[in-house]
Amino acid sequence: MSDYPTSIGRSDETSIQLLGQDLADDLLGRVGFGELAFWLVALRRPTAGELRVFEAVLVALADHGLTPSAIAARLTLAGAPESVQGALAAGLLGGGSRFLGVTEDAGRFLAGALADYSARAGELPVTDEEWDDLARGAVLGRQASGRLVPGLGHPVHRHGDPRTPVLLRIAEEEGLRGPHLRLFEAVGRVHPGVLGRTLPLNGAGVCGAALCDLGFSADILRGFALLARAAGLVGHIAEEMRRPIGPDIYRHVDGAADYRPPDSP
Fold first, then answer.
1. Cα–chain center distance at 99
2. DSSP state of 46
3. In order of start, what are the domains of the chain with their CATH numbers?
4. What is the pLDDT of residues 57-79, one digit of tens each?
5. Among candidate residues 75, 81, 68, the one with its CA nearest the CA of residue 247
6. What does the alpha-carbon distance between residue 105 and residue 219 come to, in Å, rounded to a whole number?
7. CB neighbours of 48 closer than 8 A, spacing ≥ 6?
8. Burial class (CB within 10 angstroms; exposed 0-12, middle 13-18, buried 19+) of 197
9. Cβ-based neighbours of 144, under 8 Å, separated by 6 or more
10. To which H or E segment does residue 90 belong?
11. What is the pLDDT of residues 180-239, one digit of tens each?
12. What pairs with residue 10 in β-bridges?
């Protein structure tokens, strides 16, 4: 019989083992959910500073109002009130390039730029001027390829995302303002000169940079964004149960529909 190795957990008749700990004796009442989420992915316990930054990221990504993901969850619940899991899944499935996926995209963009620079120079920038040069080259590269710079701009917070300066401050206070955040800030300084317009550094982007500075691979960042948003969606689902708006959204859209035969101009 083949082995199926895992370092996460297992259970038997009398106990549950999680991350090398006894769940009942060592973890319950001793470890918070944020710490456990970090530990499950990193396979190590976070420091107090790392946990503060990590939980700030989760809170920053938990909810942003009646976004498409929240509306999808509410409408799914309206159609299938017995399926909380379906409503939650519907909301999470919308996590992509425009919503929730920006955290991963920004982290991947920053990590790639840092890796390229390090391969050329043998070390990371030191001065603000060097960071700005790196950021300028990265932004120019995206522009040349016709792609947007992830982490720039926000459909609501057009003149500044309120989450961004707070997350930067928390990372600085905990000594965790690392190379990804430094580069992200440099992108904020130089992009107007490249793109010809000024866009805010959005909260999803700064979350991606902060998570990379905590040591997480860009490949897993969307998972954290979805983890955080799951909490917000459960809140929307609970509110939909108490005070439903899904049927009204459906009736409004249906009433506003402009049916046009396929052969009409």
1. 9
2. P
3. 46-248 (1.10.230.10)
4. 999 999 999 999 999 999 999 99
5. 75
6. 9
7. none
8. exposed
9. none
10. helix 84-93
11. 999 999 999 999 999 999 999 999 999 999 999 999 999 999 999 999 999 999 999 999
12. 17
Taking each helix axis as running N to C, give the angle between helix 33-42 and helix 48-61, from 0 to 180 degrees, rounded to the nearest 10.
100
Contacts of 229 (CB under 8 A, 6+ apart): 61, 62, 63, 69, 91, 92, 95, 100
Distance CA 29, CA 26 (A): 8
Q: Which two tokens stand for residue 116?
A: 């390229």
Read off the amino acid at residue 29: G
Is the pTM of the predicted complex or chain greater than 0.85? yes
Return the H-helix or E-strand segment holding 17: strand 16-18
CA end-to-end span of the chain:
64
- Using a 10 angstrom Cβ sphere, with 0-12 exposed, 13-18 middle and 19 or more buried, the burial of residue 232 is buried
Task: Measure the CA–CA gap between 65 and 220, rounded to whole angstroms.
Answer: 24
Which distant-in-sequence residues (6+ apart) come within 8 Å of 230 by Cβ? 88, 92
